[in-house]
Specification:
Two copies of one chain form a homodimer. Chain A is an alpha+beta fold. Chain A folds into four domains: 2-89, Uridine Diphospho-n-acetylenolpyruvylglucosamine Reductase, domain 2, CATH 3.30.43.10; 105-214, Uridine Diphospho-n-acetylenolpyruvylglucosamine Reductase, domain 3, CATH 3.30.465.10; 218-326, Alpha-Beta Plaits (2-Layer Sandwich), CATH 3.30.70; 336-419, Alpha-Beta Plaits. In chain A, 35% of the residues lie in helices and 20% in strands. Chain A has 16 helices and 16 strands. Chain A has helices spanning 2-10, 19-26, 46-59, 114-123, 140-146, 153-156, 191-195, 229-242, 254-264, 293-302, 315-326, 328-335, 350-364, 393-409, 428-431, 434-447; strands at 15-16, 39-41, 63-66, 86-89, 105-109, 126-128, 163-169, 175-178, 204-214, 218-226, 246-253, 280-288, 306-312, 339-344, 369-375, 380-386. In chain A, strands 13-10-12-11-15-16-14 form a seven-stranded antiparallel β-sheet, with helices on both faces. In chain A, strands 5, 6, 7, 8 and 9 form a five-stranded antiparallel β-sheet that branches. At the A-B interface, β8, α7 and α16 of A face β8, α7 and α16 of B.
């Protein structure tokens, strides 16, 4: 019996079946996706992960790998095609190896949180090139599996660029290790790049080797209120061209900042200056071996469209400014279960795209409230909609189709950084051609021929695995 | 008939069968690999590439894709398992699209040379993050297919990190395009990363979209004679820690420099100072928004073990210093058809590895002459051996096995940047586990089930395509 076999492999304490206990593993962080697991397995070692996969394969029960369960697309919970799966929680694989200071590398268990790995690296004089608000819960395994983006993509790229190696347990329980740490090792297809972003559908990541980045000696953040979005987009180009140390250009709007202030009981960033609700604010951060404040101030002073600015050089003040940006997700989630979309469009088309969104959303859903923020330098916009009837699945789908179709029409992406998961499966064809979808299915079938791993994510379970369409 | 069909698709002028004409396509650049092609097909468009693949699939004739044919592992010629293949030359796909200056991207036909793309980018104020001596012949398609390394890996990484998108013709003639140019587009497995480095075995790359890099305002090179290899390795760490603008740290030895000087009729870099033949020389290059000469000079002056140094700041003087490094391949090829190996070992083990090589080579092949150079900062050593009997295949294999086994024992790579091709097939198992080899075979089988594409490269033709070993 499945449960007996799992208990035999992991011990009874680490096979959870009590619904009161499993519920937090079965519900995604947004509250939009929920299913029932036959059990939650909590292995502590790579060998135990392999044992769980072999047991599930033998019983024909699918497996949903899960890290910190902070994903935003329902990819880590046993919903939809994965209902009744075993949730394979990696959170007990928390070991972090000593930093290899000469090579600038660290290897961590999949279940180590991003914040723990960041602290571990910092103690050795290094930083991690990935960062985002959920750092205290998100695990490095989940970050790799979802190719997380976040607030440092401008300088360091997505997670794929930070991953030097992986340990992965394959669907049949065999273990693949690529942890040499060599900067050059050009022997065969680059499997780590393939597993990064595969969202648990090709194998279960058990260790992640990260390329670390230098810790800048100085860091300055500024919050700028800008006259309008075209001016904000223009400012990105100016900053990129003139501020060598640019590390992040994040976008929020006046209404979102007000929402965060109300949710957190914070003062407004520009007290006594009630800018219009649709005023874009840019959170700009610069880093450098020397204080970058002068460079940033010079660029801002000569820029057109800046209405007001607050500059922060101390860690406390910078955190205060970042809270206006990072508080958005929680503030919106506190209103409602939002419809969450994550799109990219070419930066030159961003302003027109936002204008169209502001018209399109009320046209489709008159009661809806639109919340926008994102990573402007990377042309990545988070589109959240609240005020939708929770039961109104049709309305959510209609709105999703309208917004994602609009993004795709601009040559944009329907999943800039959050991935596909279960939430975006119906719309993958807007961003990927039939030829490419057929290749995705063929690769999935090659590595997971029985569809054991996270069914219903990235590749439709019904696809044949032949790339000939 | 195959030839008739190819002529129908491409015209008679672009289907070459005259042995006097095809020979240059059938012999690899090192002279070590040679085979006969049934024909050389020279399509001019993506559609023609697709037509060639469909024709070859119909006739059951394998296809060897070829760019500039400057590879060093026999991967682009119809030898071994690919004897009698059609060589598919991409060299007529030379169109380069205008640089997207806002996004820092350019898209080029697979047959455009690296030098042409570099010049095109430079005219728009950008550089290409990949560079190496064969730039005038190597094509961007070949660079992507082989995940080329070269002289800028320290700062920019291997080619995979520069590729923003690809157009690829699959084995069945369907065309896969991922050329959105979006910095974030996290929808499904990252197929460009998979095709980069696949050496023509998964698809035929027809367009390459490259992420461009900034052109530094100033550039300084220095050639340093160093007392011994441990001191040179120590100097790498010092330079990395103290020179923010470090761009390259290349390694040559006194005997190699003498060989280049003799081959090119150049004066010695340190006239009147006859350092021992095994003296390591480091070619160090720094770049920056301002002149990095001072930083470099300060680091060198306080470093231990530097015997002498020449600094070059003008383009002419820098090229003169680089010629001592870049002239190695041609100078060694002029002696003989060398045994060419390309290994990486952890930098901390490099000195002991080189000591062992200097003992190991004469023990296996008493008449042999060992030539060493490489990319020291990335711990990548090019091992060339001349003076071997050309017919002495056994001796070459024995020496290869000894050297690659020694590198693997140190946790090294048997193919740091040159790839696998046909030359390294027998030794892939030294760098990749059975579990990983099984995955490589499964991916190959998923994308090329009939083994049409470059048979005998990366994946052995006999493997089943199941990853269950």
């Amino acid at each position: 019996m499945l449960i007996t076999d799992l208990v035999g492999a992991l011990g009874a304490a680490h096979v959870l079946t009590d619904p009161d206990v499993t519920v937090s593993y079965e519900t995604d962080w947004t509250g939009a996706f929920r299913g029932r697991a036959v059990a939650v397995a909590r292995p502590a070692t790579t060998d135990q992960v392999a044992a769980v996969l072999r047991i599930c394969a033998r019983h024909g029960v699918p497996v949903v790998p899960q890290g910190g369960n902070t994903g935003l697309v329902g990819g880590s919970v046993p919903a939809g095609a994965a209902a009744g799966a075993v949730v394979l929680s990696l959170r007990r694989l928390t070991a972090i190896e000593p930093v290899d200071a000469a090579a600038g590398l660290v290897t961590a268990g999949a279940g180590a949180t991003l914040a723990d790995v960041q602290a571990h690296a910092r103690a050795a004089g290094y930083g991690v090139g990935v960062d985002f608000a959920a750092r205290d819960s998100a695990t490095v395994g989940g970050i790799a599996a979802s190719n997380a983006g976040g607030e440092r993509v401008l300088r360091h790229g997505m997670t794929r660029g930070q991953v030097a190696g992986l340990e992965v347990v394959l669907a049949d329980g065999s273990v693949l290790r690529r942890l040499s740490g060599l900067p050059k090792d050009n022997v065969g297809y680059d499997l780590p790049s393939l597993f990064v972003g595969s969202e648990g559908t090709l194998g279960v990541i058990t260790k992640v080797q990260l390329r670390l980045v230098g810790l800048p000696a100085a860091r300055t953040a500024a919050l700028l209120a800008v006259s309008d979005l075209p001016a904000a987009v223009g400012l990105v180009a100016t900053l990129r061209a003139t501020v060598a140390s640019l590390d992040a250009v994040e976008l929020v709007f006046g209404d979102g900042v007000d929402l965060v202030c109300a949710h957190q009981g914070r003062p407004a960033p520009f007290p006594g200056r009630p800018f219009p609700q649709d005023t874009p604010y840019l959170l700009v951060e610069c880093v450098g071996p020397t204080d970058p404040t002068g460079d940033l101030a010079a660029a801002v002073e000569t820029a057109t469209g800046v209405l007001d600015a607050v500059v922060a050089t101390t860690a406390t003040d910078r955190e205060r400014l970042w809270a206006y940006r990072e508080g958005h997700t929680a503030a919106v989630n506190a209103l409602d279960v939002p419809l969450k979309l994550d799109v990219a469009v070419p930066l030159a088309r961003m302003s027109a795209f936002v204008d169209d969104l502001r018209a399109l959303v009320p046209a489709v859903a008159p009661s809806a409230r639109l919340h926008l923020w994102g990573h402007l330098a990377e042309a990545n916009l988070h589109v959240n909609v609240t005020g939708l009837d929770r039961g109104d699945t049709g309305g959510r789908e209609e709105l999703t189709t309208a917004i994602l179709t609009r993004a795709a029409a601009d040559g944009g992406s329907i999943g800039a950084e959050h991935g596909v998961g279960r939430a975006k499966m119906a719309w993958v064809g807007l961003s990927r051609s039939p030829a490419e979808l057929a290749v995705l299915a063929a690769v999935k079938h090659a590595l997971d021929p029985t569809g054991l791993l996270n069914p219903g994510v990235i590749v439709s379970p019904g696809l044949t695995g032949s790339y000939r369409v």
